[in-house]
């Protein structure tokens, strides 16, 4: 699966799960860790866990083997390492605290809205 397709799958899954403020950041050339970051907010620990688990399930259905995941137990935040795509699901306060968008400022960023995913 191509990186852009993986981003689209993650965004579509997060949209289906009613994630809020879905943002895609293109970090190619900014870090060797990954190419894209997908960041989304959840309304509660249960919502964050559900979003993360659903993304994991959907990518596995497409034959993608996640490298790892962190934070699924607590539900304040979850990180899914899908290789060239990293998904961050966070409660709003946690997202504001870590402010990943500002950290990666200067990297190309887009907001996914009703199917207008980053391409």
UniProtKB/TrEMBL annotation:
| Keywords, in A-Z order | Cytoplasm, Repressor, Translation regulation
Name the predominant localization. Answer: cytoplasm
Q: Which InterPro entries match?
A: Iojap/RsfS/C7orf30 (IPR004394), NT_sf (IPR043519)
Q: Which Gene3D superfamilies match?
A: Beta Polymerase, domain 2 (3.30.460.10)
Give GO MF terms, alphabetically: ribosomal large subunit binding
* Domain of life, per lineage: Bacteria
Where is this chain's protein located in or outside the cell?
Cytoplasm
Gene Ontology CC annotation, any one: cytoplasm
Role this protein plays: Functions as a ribosomal silencing factor. Interacts with ribosomal protein uL14 (rplN), blocking formation of intersubunit bridge B8. Prevents association of the 30S and 50S ribosomal subunits and the formation of functional ribosomes, thus repressing translation.
Q: What is this protein called?
A: Ribosomal silencing factor RsfS
Q: Which organism is it from?
A: Pseudomonas fluvialis
Q: Which lineage?
A: Bacteria, Pseudomonadati, Pseudomonadota, Gammaproteobacteria, Pseudomonadales
Q: Which gene encodes it?
A: rsfS
